[in-house]
Amino acid sequence: MITHDTRCALDAVVDLLNSAPEGEGPGAPDSLTDLAALQGFLGRNNVSGVGALGPGDLADVRAVRAHFAQVFAADDDRSTVELLNALVASAGTTPQLTDHDGYDWHVHYFAPGASVADHLAADGGMALAFLIVAGERERLRYCEAPDCRHAFVDLSRNRSRRYCDSRTCGNRLHVAAYRARRREAAS
């Protein structure tokens, strides 16, 4: 069972990964280019407890993003665990119970007053760690559409999701395959 907080942290990790040029597909620009874009990301993901952002925050968050990309690309559990342990340790993880914004008691893993990068590394790293502990590393995936490299966490019951979004990438590929079969049948 994935808790609300874990799901929100996983969604933030995926959104952060997909802000990178390689997350958007070949030739796409980085969408995390300035503090306004970072603020937009934080708002979109309801990241709480973040103070004023400074010039170093953007570079630090982009470094965390690169670390998460390594976690998603890791070949086995041991490599994934080593990467996650290093990330969580570097964030100075300090678990604490809190209730805010209408949510009942839940755990934050970042230290009070932590930088936004440490906040994302701690909460996102712990959410990914919970998947590893549950034996679910294979749920960390990249879209199988040839022109898309979006990351996603496959939370489907049977772990069969292949595309970041079945309405866009999945549908597009299914329609292309259907049209190819129709052309072949017509010739």
Describe the structure concisely.
This protein is mainly alpha-helical and 187 residues long.
Instruction: Tell me the domain tally.
Output: 1
**CATH homology-level superfamily:** Jann2411-like domain
User: In one word, what is the shape?
Assistant: globular
DSSP, total strands:
4
Tell me which CATH architecture applies here. Answer: Orthogonal Bundle
Rg, alpha carbons: 18 Å
Q: Please mark out the parts with pLDDT under 50 across 5 or more consecutive residues, or reply none.
A: none
Specify the helix fraction band: 40-55%
Question: What is the string of helix and strand elements?
Answer: HHHHEEHEEH
What class do helices, strands and sheet pairing give?
mainly alpha
Question: Do you know the CATH topology?
Answer: Jann2411-like fold
User: Which strand order spans the largest sheet, edge to edge or round the barrel?
Assistant: 1-2
Number of helices: 6
| CATH class designation | Mainly Alpha
**CA distance, first residue to last residue:** 51 Å
Describe the structure.
The chain has a two-stranded antiparallel sheet. Strands 3-4 form a two-stranded antiparallel sheet. The chain starts with a helix and ends with a helix. It contains six helices and four strands. Helices cover 51% and strands 6% of the residues. A hairpin with an 8-residue loop joins β3 (140-142) and β4 (151-153). It has one domain: Jann2411-like domain (Jann2411-like fold, Orthogonal Bundle). With 187 residues, it is mainly alpha-helical.
